[in-house]
Amino acid sequence: MLAVSTDDAATLRRFRESLGSKDTFVSDEDGTLARLYDVKWPVLKVAGRVTFVIGEGRRILKVQDGNEALNPEGAVAACPLRKKKPVEPADAGTR
Question: Which of 13, 21, 10, 11 is nearest to 72 (CA)?
Fold first, then answer.
């Protein structure tokens, strides 16, 4: 997981520590990534809260924004790295 914010690095570091998160947080203070992903609000000079699940080939698999982006369950469910492979029963193939 990679968290990107338009906050400065010091603010972002304090936020990460307050969450007790081990994930990587990146400051996008100049808004480059926010502009590239078209999440910067036009009048307010800040980015909206958006979650992207990005798969192989940098393909965007899922986008969550607004209140939906606050709950990570949808993004986690869409993440191919988090999907577990089905487990075959122990007696499979013995009949």
Answer: 21
Q: Delimit the domains of the chain by residue range.
A: 1-48, 51-81
Q: Are 45 and 16 in contact (CB under 8 A)?
A: no
Tell me the CB-side half-sphere exposure of residue 86, using CA atoms within 13 A: 3
Token pair listed for 91: 């007696």
**Dist. CA 4–CA 52, nearest whole Å:** 11
pTM metric for this prediction: 0.60
pLDDT band at 11 (very low <50, low <70, confident <90, very high): very high
Instruction: Classify burial at 24, counting beta carbons within 10 Å of its beta carbon; exposed 0-12, middle 13-18, buried 19 or more.
Output: exposed
